[in-house]
Design a protein that fits this description.
17% strand, globular, 3-stranded antiparallel β-sheet, 5 helices
Amino acid sequence: MFQEIDATSVAAEPMCDEFWAAGQRINQVFARAGIELRAGLKLPTIFQEAGLPAPQILQMARVEYGPDAQGYAWIEQLTRTLLPLMQKTGVATPEEVEVDTLATRIRAEAVAKKAVLVLPPFIGAWAYTPAV
């Protein structure tokens, strides 16, 4: 069993610039660091190349709405974790990101726009091999 994200599959309705910018920074740092953005969608191929049976696959994503949504903090925490790599790869400086207020800014815009935010989905794949 493996679980990976599809970092490119995020959405907002209506569009929220702060959320979108945070996601773009995350995707840019992943790409510049050589991290596969769509690893979750490649799990069937990875399983088969490893000699495993074709896997069962399930995708799940957090869909966030309103002032109490947990996604704002998740984005801020992920950004905080990646900030040194963002700086090293030239994606953004700490001054540009303003990570200490990121969740607050995303929340304020999303709530003002009554936006629904879809965070990157997690894709799980699993397979069974017969007992020998």
